[in-house]
Amino acid sequence: MRDRTARVGPRCEIFQMSTPTSAPATPEDGSHAEAIIGQHPAERLMRIDRMRLLSVALLLALIGLGLSWELWLAPLKGGSGALALKVLPLTLAIAGMLKHRLYTYRWVSLLIWLYFTEGVMRATSDTGLSQILAGIEVTLSAALFTACAVYVRLRLRVLPPKAKGGQGAGQTDQSP
């Protein structure tokens, strides 16, 4: 069993690449549980890392837009700025995205549609600067959804196929 480790990205994330004859690394053998495991070529690893960086950048841009919009640029008249709390769910995703957690990318791609909907609604109902900011929110939301979807697709490309229904219910795979 021969493993190669490549360091990619500004935080020197470790990507585990196994040879075709070796079994995937597991958390028990000391590897990081959320490492990208599989037979990714170097080019795909770079694309995965670029998609992660793009997703994080878009997420941070959306958080920054939401905070600045509701607190300084175009807050609601008579409002206390409490609408700035709408970015709180997005802040919870930052750590998971930086750690390559596939589950985080999946739920962010679902959550982002709430921000897209808010942007469309405010782009059609507000006027002035608020309408422009809503258009930016729609664009950032659509771009973040696309980046998350591409990231998930790249990551799932190497996962083994699920067991078919033909196996017995009590049988389990005993491969090493």
List how many beta strands DSSP finds: 3
**Helix and strand composition category:** mainly alpha
Largest sheet: 3 strands, mixed
Share of helix among residues?
Answer: 40-55%
Over the alpha carbons, how many angstroms does the gyration radius reach? 21 Å
**Cα separation of the termini:** 12 Å
Strand order of the largest sheet: 1-2-3
Indicate the overall shape: elongated
Mean pLDDT over the full residue set? 79
Uncertain residue ranges = 1-34
The percent range for strand residues is: 5-15%
Q: H/E order of the elements? A: EEEHHHHH
Tally of alpha and pi helices: 5
Walk me through what this model shows.
The protein has 176 residues and is mainly alpha-helical. It has a domain at 41-156. Helix content is 53%, strand content 8%. The protein has a three-stranded mixed sheet, with helices on one face. Helix 1 packs antiparallel against helix 5 and helix 4 (102-125) runs antiparallel to helix 5. The N and C termini lie close together (12 Å). Mean pLDDT is 79; it is low at 1-34.
